[in-house]
């Protein structure tokens, strides 16, 4: 299966989910996530979901990590449409989030951090395969960002669905996941 086929198939599956199914999957994602033996994280990078696309919500996972790792800070991305890059901002109590042109909430007037400060990344995705290859929305924002991170940064995908067998059109700049959390299993690559 190529990326376009996987993207189409999984976006249709996600769109067909009921509100009740999404809530059940969210609860199961948190249970699976709590089973991980993660190191202490000083700086976690995550995204905010596009709710009307039934995107998995990482915030319950973030809240659990804040409980587990007191003092952990959380950074959120802000995209640059001119070069498809991302900048990263630490959330504070007064951080305001505004919707970008894609309907994705982004931090406004927050403290920018360098990618070198990030210990782990919760990564949005549409699909992934048995080898840890990820399919996003197709703009390459996360591949560029992950290429700039330290090699030991933990890359964690979140999906409501199990992997497809194989994504055939992987490019050299595509970055693999280390883990992917699904309602049924945690996949380690």
Q: In words, what does this structure look like?
A:
25% of the residues lie in helices and 25% in strands. The protein contains four helices and twelve strands; from the N terminus they run H-H-E-H-E-E-E-E-E-E-E-E-H-E-E-E. The protein has helices at residues 3-15, 19-34, 59-68, 141-148; strands spanning 43-45, 73-80, 85-90, 96-99, 105-108, 111-113, 120-123, 127-128, 134-135, 154-158, 179-181, 186-188.
CATH class: Alpha Beta
Beta fraction: 15-25%
Distance between the termini: 19 Å
CATH superfamily: NagB/RpiA/CoA transferase-like
What is the succession of H and E elements?
HHEHEEEEEEEEHEEE
Low-pLDDT segments: none
Apparent shape: globular
Major β-sheet strand ordering: 6-3-2-1-7-10-11-12
The assembly state of the depicted protein chains is single chain
The number of domains: 1
How many β-strand runs?
A: 12
Topology:
Layout: H1 3-15, H2 19-34, E1 43-45, H3 59-68, E2 73-80, E3 85-90, E4 96-99, E5 105-108, E6 111-113, E7 120-123, E8 127-128, E9 134-135, H4 141-148, E10 154-158, E11 179-181, E12 186-188
Parallel strand pairs: 1-2, 1-7, 7-10, 10-11
Antiparallel strand pairs: 2-3, 3-6, 4-5, 8-9, 11-12
């Amino acid at each position: 299966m190529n990326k376009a086929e996987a993207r189409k198939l999984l976006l249709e599956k996600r769109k067909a989910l009921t509100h009740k199914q999404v809530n059940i999957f969210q609860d199961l994602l948190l249970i699976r996530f709590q089973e991980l033996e993660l190191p202490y994280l000083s700086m976690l990078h995550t995204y905010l979901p596009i709710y009307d696309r039934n995107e998995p919500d990482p915030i319950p996972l973030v809240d659990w990590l804040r409980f587990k790792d007191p003092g952990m800070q959380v950074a959120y991305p802000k995209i640059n449409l001119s070069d498809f890059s991302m900048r990263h901002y630490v959330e504070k109590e007064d951080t305001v989030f505004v919707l970008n042109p894609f309907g994705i909430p982004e931090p406004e007037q927050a403290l920018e951090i360098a990618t070198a400060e990030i210990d782990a990344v919760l990564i949005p995705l549409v699909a992934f395969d048995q080898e840890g290859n990820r399919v996003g929305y197709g703009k390459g924002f996360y591949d560029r960002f992950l290429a700039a991170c330290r090699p030991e940064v933990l890359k964690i995908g979140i999906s409501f669905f199990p992997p497809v067998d194989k994504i055939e059109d992987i490019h050299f700049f595509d970055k693999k996941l280390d883990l992917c959390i699904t309602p049924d299993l945690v996949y380690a690559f």
